[in-house]
Specification:
alpha/beta, 4-stranded antiparallel sheet, 360 residues, 7-stranded mixed sheet, 13 helices, single chain
């Protein structure tokens, strides 16, 4: 009889202790209103033009790199494309951190993959909690920079939706010169593009920016992300990235999405979604069960409710949201992706019915 315990003993010790990252799809749910993964509510319609599937793809597809560089306002040598920004988070650790020796800093409540990637790779980590208004605790960060090679911050921050104070990011960059890279995750920046820090790259050699096609470009299923940095950082990442990170169909669709015509369509979608967010926020603020709707610069909003049963009630109605109750400082808070008008109306109607049910 096979002894599977022998296999388990071969697994790295740090991996044995891990719990898989609880992505929206892993958590699951049953329903037809899915507002838990910050996806764009409608799908684009792209057709493949590249048919040479018998050949390996380009290591870094030239058309994708050039078009994204033009869109972002940087040089092609300042870019590397990967399987989503998630892969980029890990590539930076693989290139710059010695397992068991170096550390990263991340600032909860924030995106969970910074921690998961560090744990997976056996890299030390320091959680420096954000201030009560969800900004960087610069004093605590400065006191904890020993052995730190990478500092991950997210702006707009997931799940809170707020932008980080740019003066605080400048202060963070000043205190990390010669010590660590500062990685600013701009996965949601298209919804407030004027706040991007890409123009800072010329001033700060150790600044790194992460981007993705998963959100405003409505291509979460494509898994295509970008690291924008100065050439020495990109050169280091080129040494550790897989030889063919983007499949030919992925590169084909990404290049199409980055055409001038489709960039214009994406920007129009952002305008419409931001308008939808404003309407949805206004409707939520009218409900007694809602304690606070926090301002958001992303394609989702964080809502605090005065009843802890709201998430389960919506879940049971087939409305799948993202519970944030286990995140530090986010008790009774739910993250809601901005959906179509019909999807947002379904949420409002469910919350109205929840209140009526509670009054009976």
């Amino acid at each position: 009889m096979n002894n599977f315990n022998d296999i388990n003993q071969l697994v790295r010790k740090n991996v044995q202790a891990l719990t898989p990252y609880q992505s929206a799809r892993r958590i699951g749910g049953k329903g037809d209103v899915w507002l838990n993964a910050n996806e764009f509510p409608t799908a684009p319609n792209f057709e493949l033009t590249e048919q040479c599937l018998n050949r390996y793809p380009q290591a870094q597809p030239e058309q994708v790199i050039n078009r994204y560089a033009d869109y972002a306002g940087v040089e092609a040598e300042q870019l590397i494309v990967s399987r989503g920004a998630d892969e980029a988070i890990e590539l930076l650790m693989r290139a710059f951190c010695e397992p068991g020796q170096d550390s990263i800093i991340y600032c909860p409540p924030t995106y969970g993959m910074y921690l998961v990637s560090a744990q997976t790779l056996g890299i030390n980590y320091k959680a420096i909690a954000q201030t009560p208004d969800w900004q960087l605790d610069l004093t605590a960060i400065k006191q904890n920079l020993d052995s730190v090679k990478l500092v991950y911050v997210c702006s707009p921050n997931n799940p809170t939706g707020n932008l980080l104070n740019p003066d605080d990011i400048k202060a963070l960059l000043a205190m990390t010169v010669g010590k660590a890279l500062v990685i600013v995750d701009e996965a949601y920046i298209e919804f407030s593009l004027e706040n991007s820090l890409v123009s800072w790259l010329a001033t700060y050699p150790h600044l790194v920016i992460l981007r993705t096609l998963s959100k405003a470009f409505a291509l979460a299923g494509l898994r295509c992300g970008f690291t924008i940095a100065n050439k020495p950082v990109i050169d280091a990442l080129q040494k550790v990235i897989a030889p063919y990170p983007l499949a030919s169909p992925v590169a084909d669709i990404a290049a199409t999405a980055l055409s001038h015509e489709n960039l214009a369509v994406m920007k129009l979608h952002v305008v419409n979604l931001n308008s939808q967010k404003a309407r949805f926020t206004s409707e939520l603020n009218k409900l007694d069960v809602v304690e606070c709707v926090y301002p958001s610069s992303a394609n989702y909003i964080l809502v605090k409710f005065n009843d802890p049963q709201v998430f389960k009630y919506c879940w049971d109605q087939g409305i799948i949201l993202r519970d944030q109750n286990k995140q530090p400082g986010l008790t009774n808070m739910i993250r809601i992706t901005i959906g179509t008008q019909a999807q947002c109306d379904a949420v409002i109607n469910a919350l109205i019915n929840f209140k009526r049910q509670g009054d009976n």
